[in-house]
């Protein structure tokens, strides 16, 4: 059904890179704003979210090229959330992916506004007449992404995360803290991965059952991904993440590792990956790439 | 054609207030995030943008009640932009509408995130299945608002405004500065007013010519509104705006008044209002309320 087969991981990453870059205007004004937007949105990274959109579309039997606008939009939302996360009034981070953070280059005001503009741009990209997607697909995309990016999704997770900073959680009951931590991970990271998988399904015009399966996959993958990130902070490697080892623990930050320790966290990640894989196994051969992605991800922290 | 006639200005304002409040969930989580969102979005103000959506819908021959989701969405975008504008990394304002600004109450991190969530929420409100708007109207709404809120609209205007702060413009060639100032006003304020008017027209399923007329009206109204704001800063009254008189001038801020003086600014506002009214006069009796609104607005600074 696909016009051409789904490229492999590295080619897929480059493809998302190119699609993001191509979504920017040629002679942008105000220049500095667009430059700041592109500084983060165009700087690559793993492109996990964009690639996931394309893989999920293929898994649902669709032509992955039709999912490209959604892949771009999800990456723009991700980029905006990174910029705002790093701001001095949030985590106050100086480096990301081995480069100075957006606000270190453009100043916090422009960085703030670049994030705001990237969010609006995501919805513009999804609904552009020239992106070729049928109206009902564009509309379903917006519904999914607006929900995932908002207070009931990504931002909700960030708020609970923010409120759990700085060791206050250490005085609370462990079961309650564990529930909150899962909420954080499922929302801060899980919401957007869930949306990415579902957006791919929407591009393939998949039915509700397939969308639900893809959504569960994305959500569990997100949980596993975030636990793995917590593990990488504790056990290394700094070259890969660009962050110092043990930083979360020293900051008293609530993470799987600071709450459960390394072994129990590894087990939790493994279980989430199993749930992710189980959800999409019924999709058959088309879902092979998603199964491989899940296995790769859990291998990151070994 | 309307199910009931368009209420008068004060009733319209209250109606938008209620629609915004009703768009919030009953048991929101995380509570503090939603509280922060509602603190600004629910705090009223003139509701110029939301009212404009409804008036424009009626002017285009539509049932204004059908435009309510768009009125809410435009107010949510406006609220987010106010929150971000007031942040310590932007204008660092402590008061707005006579109350402490969002970040003074909830802290800058939550305020930042509340703004982010309000923007996402605007697109969710526009596309909610239960809002009753036909799919093609929802989709056209998203296209209009995403464009108006982004780098080519509202945010673009804010960036150029930000870069013009602090007296640097005083050394530049006057014609160039005047062009830039018009760009700021037409984008920072004009984009959202233009979108508000067009969104109302879209709700009425108006044709391209009517949408263009409404758009010009909104854009010119926005320019006049912003010039009037500049005038109010210079000539008062502090009770109405909640700001001290002459603040822009002392800060070396680029405004119509600091660049052209009071008389020339009044003339510029008057001309913009004339252009606004001329654009919609062909719409006939339905546009009467828009004509009145334009006249009221120019009266503000007399």
In brief:
Two copies of one chain form a homodimer. With about 300 residues, the first copy, chain A, is mostly helical.
CATH superfamily of chain A: Farnesyl Diphosphate Synthase
Note the quaternary state here: homodimer
CATH fold-level label of chain A: Farnesyl Diphosphate Synthase
**Helical content class of chain A:** 55-70%
SS-based class of chain A: mainly alpha
Largest sheet: number of strands, sense, barrel closure of chain A: 2 strands, antiparallel
Order of helices and strands of chain A: HHHHEEHHHHHHHHHHHH
Biggest interface, chains and residues, is: A-B, 51 and 51 residues
Describe the structure.
Chain A has 302 residues and is mainly α. The first copy, chain A, has one domain: Farnesyl Diphosphate Synthase. Chain A is built from 16 helices and two strands. A two-stranded antiparallel ribbon of chain A has the order 1-2. In chain A, a hairpin with a 2-residue loop joins strand 1 and strand 2. The longest helix of chain A has 28 residues, at 208-235. The radius of gyration of chain A is 19 Å and the shape is globular. The termini of chain A are far apart.
């Amino acid at each position: 059904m696909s016009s051409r087969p789904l490229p492999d991981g590295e080619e897929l990453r480059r493809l998302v890179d190119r699609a993001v870059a191509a979504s920017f205007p040629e002679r942008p004004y105000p220049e500095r704003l667009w430059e700041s937007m592109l500084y983060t949105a165009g700087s690559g990274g793993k492109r996990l979210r964009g690639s996931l959109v394309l893989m999920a579309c293929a898994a649902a039997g669709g032509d992955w090229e039709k999912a490209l606008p959604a892949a771009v939009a999800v990456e723009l939302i991700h980029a905006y959330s990174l910029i705002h996360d790093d701001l001095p009034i949030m985590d106050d981070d100086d480096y990301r992916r081995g480069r100075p953070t957006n606000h270190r280059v453009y100043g916090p005001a422009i960085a703030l506004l670049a994030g705001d503009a990237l969010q609006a741009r995501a919805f513009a990209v999804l609904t552009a007449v020239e992106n070729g997607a049928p109206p009902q697909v564009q509309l379903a995309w917006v519904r999914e992404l607006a929900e995932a990016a908002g207070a009931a999704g990504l931002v909700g997770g960030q708020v609970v995360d923010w409120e759990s900073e700085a060791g206050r959680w250490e005085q609370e009951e462990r079961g309650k803290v564990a529930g909150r931590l899962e909420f954080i991970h499922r929302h801060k990271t899980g919401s957007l991965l869930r949306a990415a998988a579902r957006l791919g399904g929407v591009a393939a015009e998949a039915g509700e059952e397939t969308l639900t399966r893809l959504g569960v996959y994305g959500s569990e993958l997100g949980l596993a991904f975030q636990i793995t990130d917590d593990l990488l902070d504790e056990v290394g490697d700094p070259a890969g993440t660009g962050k110092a080892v043990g930083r979360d623990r020293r900051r008293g930050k609530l993470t799987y590792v600071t709450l459960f320790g390394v072994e129990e966290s590894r087990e939790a990640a493994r279980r989430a990956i199993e749930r992710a894989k189980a959800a999409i196994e019924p999709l058959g051969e088309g879902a092979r790439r998603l199964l491989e992605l899940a296995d790769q991800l859990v291998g990151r922290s070994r």
